[in-house]
Specification:
single chain; Rossmann fold; de novo design (two linked rop proteins); 4-stranded mixed sheet; 4Fe-4S; FMN binding; metal ion binding
Length: 455
């Protein structure tokens, strides 16, 4: 099967002008998956999703069907929460799904609620995504009026209410427990887990399933077409298709749905059907494979498949599905500072290593970039980062309640380890590092030779 033969599962209506309306959605198999699901038992639907090995598309990549089984039996009520707080730099695939195909998400929510036994769902959408919020609100009104949401859906005894909740624009509430805190009216700060994971005690301390927008949007197609058709697509450990947002120094930035685990980074960055190569014909310097949290990749990683296991082994992650491309002219010190500043500003402040460490890293980076840095500042920078993410392992050791603090160290480790010479030019002399670095993507091949150095 070639890339041209792969069906579009969740972006098939992107070119359809009225796909966001109920009429446009129903004209293209809309709500047929829900009708098919209601002809089965909830357990049968849950078993199908589990058999499909639908990996979560929000970052962690945990199988959705297995997550559903973690809710304790006979504990009611239970809730479904949709994580639509997409806010990592370079990530915008979920926003496109919310704006262009909102009914697809609503149908996925209903199928998940039926399988898990939820009587109420909450759609949590990032505060800045005003157009997405408006589209979802209009779609929900249409779905209620048509009897797809509410009481006795499609003439059955299945009833669900869906609440649309607008966030206030905090990156940290993308973490599921911080999102739950925000839904409850509290400041968005992550909860300590264990002892309680959301599936056991989440929203209002009741069993809560938290799924990502893209994850749930796949459910109508899976139920309508069957697990066997789904499993024909993708690699052994990464089934189906996946949507990636490609941005940065490419000719055609955008959102692309590709076969999961088969398509390579080279395909999606350079193929004319996708991002179309580096703008201006320049060379690739580095790219971020899975959102700002992910360790950077380089030219030697281009032929890796977009597949969770392969990327994990290489020392990074597919994460939120955001591929950010940097060309040969990119100042990697500036690029690292931009990302560190984002994480420092978005830290909720609950954990000392993250609250203090991210701020210090930003200050040191800014001093270096302003031309006031000393050679020892780079060692200080890495030492500060090492206190947050010990040994720079990947996945990182957890020194904080959530991974935000560790995420802030990844651009520093990537830039310093690979582009040490650029830091040396800023600080005016050679630098020596005194920390241990174990992450595969951070170590990589030797740093580029300096001109005339012979090493």
């Amino acid at each position: 099967m070639t890339m041209n033969d792969v069906p579009k599962i969740i972006t098939s209506r992107f070119d359809q002008g009225d796909a966001h309306t109920l009429d446009g959605y129903r004209r293209t198999h809309g709500y047929e998956g829900l009708a098919a699901a209601l002809e089965k038992t909830p357990q049968q639907v849950a078993d199908e999703v589990k058999a499909a090995s639908l990996l979560g598309r929000g970052g962690a990549g945990f199988p959705a069907g297995i997550k559903w089984t973690l809710a304790p039996a006979n504990v009611w009520p239970r809730y479904l929460v949709v994580n639509g707080d997409e806010s990592e730099p370079g990530t915008y695939k979920d926003r496109m799904l919310l704006e262009r195909d909102p009914h697809q998400l609503i149908e996925g929510v209903l199928i998940a609620c039926y399988a898990v036994g939820c009587g109420q769902a909450f759609l949590y959408i990032r505060g800045e995504m005003a157009h997405a919020q408006e589209r979802m609100a209009a779609a929900l009104n249409e779905a209620y009026a048509a009897g797809f949401v509410g009481k006795n859906i499609l003439g059955t005894d299945f009833s669900v209410d869906v609440v649309l909740h607008w966030g206030a624009g905090a990156y940290i509430v993308g973490e599921e427990t911080a999102l739950i805190e925000s839904l409850e009216g509290n400041r968005g700060m992550p909860r300590l887990k264990p002892p309680f994971f959301p599936a056991a005690k989440g929203l209002y301390m009741q069993p809560t399933i938290v799924n990502n927008v893209e994850t749930l949007s796949n459910l109508p197609w899976i139920i309508r077409n069957g697990v066997d058709e789904w499993n024909k697509l993708g690699a052994e450990t990464s089934k189906g298709t996946r949507v990636f947002a490609v941005s940065g120094h490419v000719n055609n930035p955008g959102v692309f749905e590709v076969e999961f685990g088969v398509t390579t980074f080279r395909d999606i960055i350079f193929d004319p059907k996708f991002a179309g190569g580096i703008r201006g014909g320049k060379a690739l310097k580095a790219f971020i494979p899975g959102g700002a949290s992910a360790p950077w990749f380089y030219e030697e990683h281009l032929d890796l498949p977009l597949e969770k296991v392969a990327i994990d082994r290489a020392g990074s992650m597919l994460g939120s599905g955001a591929i950010v491309v940097m060309d040969e002219d990119t100042d990697m010190v500036k690029a690292a500072l931009r990302l560190v500043r984002f994480f420092a500003r978005e830290s909720c402040g609950k954990c000392t290593p993250c609250r203090e460490g991210t701020t210090w890293m930003e200050k040191i980076m800014q001093r270096i970039l302003d031309g006031h840095g000393r050679p020892e500042d780079v060692a200080l920078l890495m030492d500060t980062a090492d206190n947050i993410s010990v040994d720079f392992m990947w996945p990182p050791r957890m020194t904080t309640i959530c991974p935000l603090g560790q995420s802030a160290t990844t651009p520093i480790a990537s830039a310093v380890m690979r582009f040490k010479d650029e830091f040396e030019r800023y600080v005016g002399g050679p630098i020596e590092l005194n920390v241990t670095v174990k992450g595969a993507a951070f170590i990589g091949p030797p740093t580029r030779k300096k001109e005339g150095s012979g090493v």
